[in-house]
Amino acid sequence: MGGVSLILTQQYFVTTFVVMKPLSRTSAGTLYHQLLGVLKDRIESGDIGVGDRLPSEADLVRDHGVSRTTARRAMDELRRQGLVRREPGRGTFLTVPRLQSNLAYLRSFSEEIERWGYRPGARLVARMEQPANEKISSRLAVDEGEAVLYVRRLRLADERPIFVCDSYLPVMRFPELRDADYGAVSLSRLFEEAVGLKVERAHQWIVAAAAPADVAGLLEIDAGAPLLKIERVARVAGDAPIESVEAFFHPERYRHYNELPAPPVEVIE
Fold this sequence. Notes:
By secondary structure, the chain is an alpha+beta fold. 25% of the residues lie in helices and 35% in strands. Strands 6-7-8-11-10-9 form a 6-stranded antiparallel beta sheet. Strands 1-2 form a two-stranded antiparallel sheet. The chain has a two-stranded antiparallel sheet with strand order 3-4.
């Protein structure tokens, strides 16, 4: 990643030097934005790959002629964007890209994955009918003990595990869901095709949780590792609940994002 590299040919060694140019105060953009752009260009080009160590702040100061404050600010912004992680005593490393969800809109998980340029996938893990417990009966507005369809799927982005999704479906209310194809990527699209109704709104809760052993195995993380758990009740036209979901997200591959405007000024007459 810059500096000196040795290339072995059949007959001799060739030494190549990659010279970093100082940034220009006369160029468009502040030194901070220029440096941030240089680092992101190296990441996007593959010059810095997942797991590679980034230049230290001292390296950036020396190679680009910026202040330590500017170098630190650029590295902090990469961390804020979830692109890198800092390991005390070792340095800063490029991490696996995280999917980012905007909480301001109701989108299916598949739509979120597609919006960020990844290929969504789904693997059916389990499917069975079981009696609704108190929590599920309340969320789906069915009688406790009524049969609901339980479906567990592992959701993927470019073949990498992103989250485990446990869905509970009211098959007595929507019998068409019994024979639906749960290997399909998007359940929202499946609901629309099978039942003829579109998901119009949802209630959602976000909590921290420890990864159960079965979930950890699917996500390829340690049992008990902290992760993000999202619970959602999706509703179709007429406000009928069609799905109660519990989703367990990989701690290093997904995050939620929201922009919060200031509240409007109240005018008292």
